[in-house]
Write a structure and sequence with these properties.
The chain has 649 residues and is of the alpha+beta class. The protein is 49% helix and 16% strand. It has a 4-stranded antiparallel beta sheet with strand order 14-5-16-15. A 4-stranded antiparallel beta sheet has the order 11-6-13-12, with helices on both faces. Helix 2 crosses helix 3 and helix 11 (248-260) crosses helix 15.
């Protein structure tokens, strides 16, 4: 992945960058000896500084995550900068406070454990094995060094240890569990009448006069979407690989080398059965001799012709295979303990072994069959050989071109043609597109492209974008070709939108009026008759619990019912609610029965106690973080980042 590629600095910002990068070279010696000139930092937490670059990276990641959460487009009107600043500052402060706590409390992650965690991560593996090349390429694409990644992983592991420790040491008194069960296992008897929005909407008619009146009453409310057309350069590893030529002879040579190296062939498998006479741990010589004698007696019975499966079912002390007549299935090297494996691979088909001692006890092994290695044919692996060869030939060139593109993009922030000419890439153009995914086609279908196209640097400053990864090993650099700002729609352009708006408003009013009438009439009438009168759907439920999956109903109804106050005995509570899809519902709550811990078995009690313990642990963890922050001295260096905090008196 290339999501961590550094953002390019351009335009007037580039001149500022040049000045700032020059000053340290000139004054470096002076600063070293006099100590003047503090390095830039974003946040200071108890005298430890968080670099500005770390804050900016955190902001960039948060912005990307937010855009993805909204389908690639952050909604207009969202105060995104303010929201992301708070999110990034809170995260960085929390992480620093936790690191300081770990240091004070001497929390550690063993280096071997850390290394094993990295090596077991499937993302860094090729064919099930850790690849150092894949590991470094992946970190490089994220813009982090191995040391930075290990620090991040170490922090995550320590945080998990601390959080788990709080959960495991949390104490849940029986009285709290009883109270929790009363609420969590509470059941309610209720009914609801649902007024479907769609039934009312389909009968709504909208006249031309209503459309024109709405347009005149809401001038400028309906706007066209802002649109852009972009010019862009793109290249991918796959496209580069397609240009690599390879002959059939070369592929056959690669196939021969692969076979000689043991690739493209299955391992030999051996189908085996065994009978185990278990030897207890720390058994003395007398016990071992006794168990061996028993195994030898079983072997003699087998050699006299008794059925192996029948003896295994009766005599074998391996619970995993005894009931299958001792069958172990197909066995490959490296699966069984070494003494067992050595004996098995020294046997011939149909042969019985002498008693073989392992840490489990004495095994009598029967080799049922041998499946020799199977070699894949050249035609079966030809496509894979070709793909791997092309990738090997283009990997280095791809990253070299990637670095070159990044450099040229920095050096030529206002031009794509010159960059394309030097890299042999064609400048392409998109159609007009908006921020909406539904309007995007071609290259603009990628959320990251739309996000970049409407960014300030590209849209306002008219600069090239930074490198954008639209897929694995597929990058794009873009700039604005044409820009159409949002403007008020004409009546002709807005007519269909207004018709839908007016139709929706009229239907919503009709649904709400119907629900209000139902609410007024329900206490005095029969629910079924009221439902029929207003074309509502009536459903009644008894003993419904909060999380009962068997009861199918809109989640808003379930939530609202369990927020209603318990009715007095013999009374009914009523409430009208609106659903997100436009439907309205009138609820009638007849009875509430608290949960009873006496109805839970021991397993359910244990699970519930663990659940409450985890909740309390999470609460304790949050309280600990809040306390650490209250006691800390926190200073934020720039008013644009956030509000300065200081340690309380």
């Amino acid at each position: 992945m290339l999501l961590g590629l550094r953002e390019r600095i351009s335009g007037y910002i580039a001149w500022i960058f040049v000045i700032l990068i020059t000053i340290p070279f000139v004054l470096w010696g002076i600063q070293e000896y006099t100590g003047i000139g503090e390095p830039n930092y974003a946040i200071k937490v108890n005298d430890e500084r968080i670099p500005l670059g770390e804050y900016e990276r955190t902001m960039a990641i948060a912005r990307t995550n937010l855009a993805q959460a909204y389908g690639g487009r952050i909604p207009p009107g969202f105060d995104v900068d303010s929201y992301l600043r708070k999110q990034a500052v809170d995260q960085l402060i929390q992480n620093k406070l936790m690191d300081q706590l770990f240091k004070r409390q001497n929390y550690r992650v063993d280096g071997a454990v850390l290394q094993d965690t990295i090596m077991q991560d499937s993302y860094f593996q090729i064919d099930g094995k850790f690849s150092n090349t894949r590991y470094r390429e992946e970190l490089r694409s994220r813009g982090v060094t191995p040391e930075e990644y290990q620090d991040l992983l170490r922090h995550q592991m320590l945080t998990a240890q601390l959080s788990q420790g709080l959960v495991q040491t949390s104490f849940v008194p029986e009285s709290e569990l009883v109270d929790y069960v009363k609420i969590s296992h509470q059941s309610r008897d209720f009914a609801y009448l649902l007024v479907p929005f769609s039934d009312y909407e389909k009968n709504v008619k909208v006249s031309g006069e209503e459309i024109e009146k709405y347009f005149n009453d809401h001038p400028g409310d309906l706007m066209t979407d802002e649109r852009v057309k972009i010019a862009y350069l793109e290249f991918s590893l796959d496209e580069m690989a397609k240009a690599v030529s390879i002959s059939d002879n070369t592929l056959r040579d690669l196939y021969k080398s692969a076979i000689e190296a043991g690739r493209y062939q299955t391992e030999e498998t051996r189908n085996a059965s065994h009978i185990l006479v278990r030897v207890p741990d720390n058994a003395d010589e007398a016990v071992i001799a006794e168990k061996k004698k028993k195994a030898e007696e079983i072997l003699q019975r087998l050699r006299k012709g008794e059925d192996f499966a029948a003896i295994a079912k009766k005599e074998s002390e391996d619970p995993g295979s005894a009931q299958q007549g001792g069958d172990l299935g197909d066995v490959r090297r490296g699966v069984m303990v070494k003494p067992f494996e050595d004996a098995l691979y020294a046997m011939k088909k149909g042969e019985l072994s002498e008693p073989v001692l392992t840490r489990f006890g004495f095994h009598i092994i029967r080799l049922n069959s041998i499946e020799p290695p199977q070699v894949q044919t050249f035609n079966e692996v030809k496509d894979e050989l070709e793909q791997n060869y092309r990738k090997e030939q283009t990997d280095a060139a791809f990253y070299e071109r990637l670095d070159r593109l990044q450099t040229l993009s920095f050096e030529n922030p206002g031009d794509l043609a010159q960059i394309g000419e030097q890299l042999g890439l064609k400048v392409q153009e998109s159609d007009f597109f908006t921020r909406k995914a539904a309007d995007a086609k071609g290259i603009a279908a990628h959320p990251a492209v739309r996000e970049a196209a409407f960014s300030n640097a590209v849209l306002i400053e008219k600069q090239n974008s930074s490198l954008i990864e639209v897929d694995d090993n597929h990058v794009v650099v873009l700039r604005i070709k044409e820009h159409e700002e949002s403007r008020p729609k004409t009546l002709a352009e807005a007519r269909s939108d207004i018709a839908e708006l007016v139709k929706h408003e009229k239907a919503a009013r009709a649904v709400d009026e119907a629900a209000a009438k139902i609410l007024a009439e329900l206490p005095a009438g029969k629910a079924e008759a009221v439902a029929k009168r207003y074309a509502a759907q009536y459903k009644s439920f008894t003993k419904v619990k909060r999380e009962d999956p068997s009861m199918s109903m809109p989640h808003e109804i379930r939530q609202a019912v369990f927020k209603m106050p318990a009715p007095a005995e013999g009374k009914t509570e009523y409430r009208k609610i609106s659903l997100a899809n436009g439907d309205a519902a009138v609820l009638s709550l007849q009875a509430v029965k608290p949960g009873d811990i006496a109805t839970l078995n021991e397993t359910e009690r244990k699970q519930l106690r663990q659940q409450v313990q985890q909740m309390r642990g999470r609460f304790d963890y949050s309280a600990m973080l809040a306390a650490l922050r209250d006691e800390a001295e926190i200073r934020i260096s720039d008013s644009d980042i956030g509000t300065t905090e200081t340690k309380p008196e």
